[in-house]
């Protein structure tokens, strides 16, 4: 049974004003597919949508299979408002700026002016319902991406597997941490698990390096921060989020080589066994005794056993 409200939005979604001038680059339907996916994953729980790195990443996954044009999340996030069901809410002091702005081309300008966006309340309610959400998703696929139906469906299936694994990892923190969890060899290089671990860590640390607090995200959705294992995966087989930490590429390199490690109070210790030159802000030594960025939720903190393993087995002293 399809409700009138659902029918109303199905019609609106079939008739989005998409830019076809330069060949099909329907970035509004791609944004909507990405939003549907985040709602499905429970990453968007209220009708308050931020141009977040999560959204960026999923938007990019769809973008890369659907078009080879240059991606820009700011465009659909802004222009979707012309459809009438998507509303912008300005940051304090930017009310007038938002009212008179007719175009936003960069994510940084978008973040400056727009605090968040929201759907019509009745539409958001539909999107939180499994059946209605699927009807809307199929409408988008059938209307705009019929030639890519199989690709999109396999992307959705893969994302669901990654998300299930990520949820399993988050559940695991309810149990006592165990350092070594050897997996069957066939499982050691499983891309779904690798991606699930990465997503869990990136979301826990908000794509920020725990050591230097760098946060850099390219327009292609790539992050300078990486999900690092504290006890290396080839030794521990352990994707527990408490065996993980978000580090930028530079600090990941130094951590894996034992040039830095962390105390049981989450302070940085630095090896004396190296020579380093260059500007002081880039030196490992200037990090000594600084506190690392820890997760909001204490259950996600790096495990003491993992940190101790790293100090004993990797740190050079
Ligand atoms: Zn860093």
Layout of helices and strands, plus pairs?
Layout: H1 4-14, H2 27-40, H3 53-66, H4 74-79, E1 86-90, H5 95-100, H6 107-113, E2 114-119, H7 121-127, H8 130-144, H9 149-172, H10 191-204, E3 225-229, H11 233-236, E4 244-248, H12 249-256, E5 260-262, E6 268-270, H13 304-313
Antiparallel strand pairs: 1-2, 3-4, 5-6
Would you give an account of this structure?
The protein is mainly alpha-helical and 317 residues long. It has two domains: 4-144, no CATH class; 174-313, no CATH class. The protein is built from 13 helices and six strands. It has helices at residues 4-14, 27-40, 53-66, 74-79, 95-100, 107-113, 121-127, 130-144, 149-172, 191-204, 233-236, 249-256, 304-313; strands at 86-90, 114-119, 225-229, 244-248, 260-262, 268-270. A two-stranded antiparallel ribbon has the order 1-2. α1 runs parallel beside α8. It starts with a helix and ends with a helix. Zinc ion (ZN) is lined by residues 209, 211-212, 214, 247-248, 250-251.
Radius of gyration: 22 Å
- Give the ordered list of helices and strands: HHHHEHHEHHHHEHEHEEH
Strand adjacency order, main sheet: 1-2
**Overall helicity:** 40-55%
**CA-to-CA gap between the ends?**
69 Å
The small molecules bound here are: zinc ion
Secondary-structure content class: mainly alpha
**Main β-sheet, in a few words?**
2 strands, antiparallel
Estimate the strand proportion.
5-15%
Work out the count of structural domains: 2
The low-confidence parts are none
Q: What is the helix tally?
A: 13
Total strands: the figure is 6
Shape estimate: globular
> Can you give the mean pLDDT?
92
